[in-house]
Amino acid sequence: MKVKETKARLYELDLPVSGRLRHDESRSGIELRQFAHRASNGVGHPVNPITGIKFLTGEEDLDFSLFGPITLHWQRSYFSNLASDGWLGQGWQLPFSMCLKRMGDAVTLTDSQCHDIPLPQLAPGETKSLPDIGFHVRREGNGCYHLISADHSTFHRFAPLALDAENPQGEHGDFLPLVSVGDQFGAHIRFLYGDDGLPTRIVDAVGRVLPLQYVTRRLPDGREVSRLRQITLCSDSSLVADNGHSGKVLVTYDYSPEGELIRVRNGEGQAVREYRYRNYVLIEHSQPGALVSRYEYDQCSPQGKVLRIETNTGESWHFRYLPGKTEVVNALGETAHYLFDESNALVGYVDPAGNFSKTDYDAAGNPVCHIDAAGRTHLSTYDVWGNITSTTDPAGARIEVLYHPKWRRPTLVVDPAGAATRFEYDATGNLIRRTDALGHIVEYGWDDRGHVSRITDAHGRVQTFEYDARGQMTSHTDCSRRTTQYGWDDFGHLQSVTNAAGETTHYQCDQRGRVTAVQRADGNKELFIRDLHGRLIAHTDANGARTRWELTADGLPALQTDAQGHCVHYEYDAARRMCRMTNQNGAQCSFSYDAAGRLVSKRGFDGRVTSYRYDASGLLTERLEPVTQARSTVAPRDDEGSKTLRTMYQRDQAGRVIAIVTTRADGARTERSTWRYDAAGRLIEACNDCCRLERKYDALGRLISETTHVAGRTLSLAYDHDALGNHVQTTLPDGRILNYLYYGPGHLHQINLDGELITDIERDALHREASRTQGRLVSHYRYDAVNRLVAQHAVTTQADDAYRVVSREYEFDAANNLLRLTDMRGGTREYRYDALGRLARTGRERFTFDPAGNMLDGPAAPPVCNDRVARFEEIRYVYDSHGNVTEKSAGRSRCMHFDYSPSHRMERARVSGITGEQHFEYGYDALGRRVWKKDDSGTTFFMWEANRLLGETRDDFTVVYVYAHNSFEPLAQIESRANGAKHATILYYHTDQIGMPIELTDSEGRVQWQAAYNAWGSTRIQEMRRNVHQPLRFQGQYFDAETGLHYNQHRYYDPDIGRFTTQDPLGMTGGINLYRYAPNPNAWIDPLGLQGVDLNCFPPGIDRATAGRIPTDPNVFSVAGHGNCQGMMAPNGQMLSAADLAQRIQQHPRYQPGMTVQLLACETGRGQNCFAQQLANSLNTNVVGTNGTIWASLRSSTLAVTGCWINFRPRI
């Protein structure tokens, strides 16, 4: 639960944003530390369960935003306990409606939520610091007052409306409204008032003028009141005539005859919010055609408390108010208890399952101790301004922070391992120098408007930034002097990005910044169709294929219809949790939850049941998989344990997994893995029955060594990094060193082995690989305007007798599907696709799919309702009760049997054929990486570099694989023998557009190995001049000749049918068909046997496909989608708040508390209170976002970013 809101914060520590490093107070006005936020601890839609106040502060009531040096967020707020009559009527507040009131010598501040705070008496020119409320207050000699933020970044100026000869300094004025909001760089928003004390114009920090129009209503008691009617936007004051307004309408408000706000219209005049009242108290709010929420009170007055909430989706909440406690009963009859103290701070919470958590506060109202329901204690300390000075997690790991005495920004941060980071500021509070724990220094330069204009990295390389009058970045020039340019509309929404090659991508957005169309640099366009409330209801790709969504009233998907008319249906329970899904074949998957809302059972499309148990805090402790499938989804009884595969998760005090124990149903086999962490929470040891893995890190948390102990062998790898964090060396177990050389911030330009050149790389203006040396060959690469590889040629370097050894050209359709491949050896091959982008035919191969994506024998074959394909052409498949393929046979000529460990990893294969029977065994480390395989003649051992196969050894023969930068695409292999000879043979890979190896050439440029494949990766032709070992296939895959399967780290891939042999260990996160590899093998890769990013928020289309192919760091939780500085978009087009996304991340099976989260979305790190910062606060963990835009390479599945990656630490 969210605890009492405070102004405490832990500032962004690693990098300032490209733009203003400032507070953004314009959205919510001043929030004072000594007062509990009226909107804290909301329940439902929403109500404060402690005070019974109905409030509205969400995105639905944000009418518009105008980006500028100080962004103007026009955010309406409603509080049912306010009797004051504001510009919008009783209970409504705007962030700029705060004021000072004077009675004699006493001055009182009324903040943006109508708290009345007495200010100290001040002499003219005097300033006093008020840590209790989080501000400084200064009285000017002219009768004005300034409220200054703790870090001196924001100034609120209050002044009397009229001065006369008898009152020259305004010292006798009793009403001082807010007249401007400014910052330390001179930017300010001004408010101009009429004689009636109402603001008539707002001039924003760019100089745009917003005239405010009012209407008059006569109340039943005879009083006349003014109500804000309309706000328009003019580019400057010259466009505002004295007798009227000329400009763009931003918002219009409609009122009842009683002066109640009943309707909000957007800039197009469409009604987007409606309200109903009783006795001036809000009893209903709605989005026309969507969600309706209704409220009952114990009395319809500002003193009333909400007793009941009901919505048109079937949700309901009942409130019972008791001394020190409120009971809330939801639509399922489940009761939650909220405990509070005499100051209405939430001190305890009992969820409907009876789990109790509590929070203690210091005298200033800061939460100093939180004990979760499992008894884990989180401690915090604060300075007098409410800034966090230390946090201690339940395991005792402590972070300490020191602050600048004036700017209240960190000067020193010490992590739990003792690593210290230092920060220095200039005379205006701008961060000018950051020194990390290893002494690496990054310096920042600023313009006179407070924008970062220059960043000098630890190598002394400089990148520069330029901005428009609104403070939005218009160009970014990297340290190679390559410039990316940005265009923005009047509302601050991105319109265009022009890269260093002059190629422009155009964006169309609605008034709220939601993307409605993207036109790529090649002219092709994809469309995003939205309903009145901005929710995505259709997506049309560049080929015209359209996916449609029907949404529930609250924006959840009810029906998804693909371009072929196939549908997925979604159903929800009374708590709006998905309880049933019906796939395109009509098969159903169901979900059930416990009283705390946690998933406790899932029944898959194939009838497989998985049950889950949790500790009191909601962390997973047990997974149960019945061997004999039940017809219900309830968890099995304890006495059924002998029939159940049971996985138990043991955790340390910080909630991190320290052991996983899986016991087979018959009790004959138990598998155990253990993990240990250092003081900073980094994995330092992972053990199982097969091997032990040890890791070490430097002071910056970078991996510097990895040692694997397996079968009596010790394999050690050492890593070195430069000051920018680039991986510059790998020391192999035999002492040889792979060196990586970079230019700029991290663009790879050379790889060598102990000084012997492997490759030199030249790059184009976009830093894409343009050429690569490969022995006596040079490979050249050419790309089109949307970053697709369209040609590659490998040419000998002999000037007199140059000739091509490799030559391929590629043609694509508008949706990035490969249409034609022309190869100098293989000839021309054409590809055709269905409306869903699935490969339909190439050459003599034809493919038919059922609606759920299962490959079929032909058009007449029935759909596979359980997704377990039993027959394909002449191949037969048999599955165990967990959905693992246990037998694959092709007539009598070949039959394979597979045995699995309790964790569903293949550990034995028995292959029978005409020549007899062979046996093979496989071993894995605790991270799931295969470390050996055995056959009758010996054992092959494997080395891993994180999640990438680095090499293998069998007997005295070793192969080391070298890859393209940050990719799974192989670049070279190094063969050597341990017979005392120092000579190593280097062979060079030539891959196709998705990184599949097609040829290997030697140092003389001769082709030593080449292959041709069927569409889904099975080898059709393989030729070699000598005995070359080349097992790599699709990126991240290793060909096992004994079975014909491809090892794909977390699973095995069957290229005969284009799918995996076991279900996705991430469940439906990677898609609802748990066996599916990809719809199109010519455009997708899955290097880990999962789907690229952990949480893919893109809607169907090119971007989702690209995100699905991005390999990510296993220690980082990755989220991809459309985003901006205010939020990220869900697949259905609904904007996700930080709290919404945090909940989705926490429910993900791969996420562990404390994991760093990376947002692969544009601009989530732009601005100080940006979305990445909000997510860091919600998750209480580091979040990495970028202040620029992102695009991905379709070939190498790597990311390109304009701008900087920024690490945001939580501000609690």
TrEMBL record:
NCBIfam families: Rhs_assc_core (TIGR03696), YD_repeat_2x (TIGR01643)
Organism from which the protein derives: Caballeronia ptereochthonis
InterPro entries: DUF6531 (IPR045351), Rhs_assc_core (IPR022385), RHS_repeat (IPR031325), T6SS_VgrG/RHS (IPR050708), TEN-like_YD-shell (IPR056823), YD (IPR006530)
Keywords: Repeat
Protein name: Rhs family protein
Residue ranges of every copy of the Teneurin-like YD-shell domain listed in the record: 782-1064
Domain DUF6531: 44-114
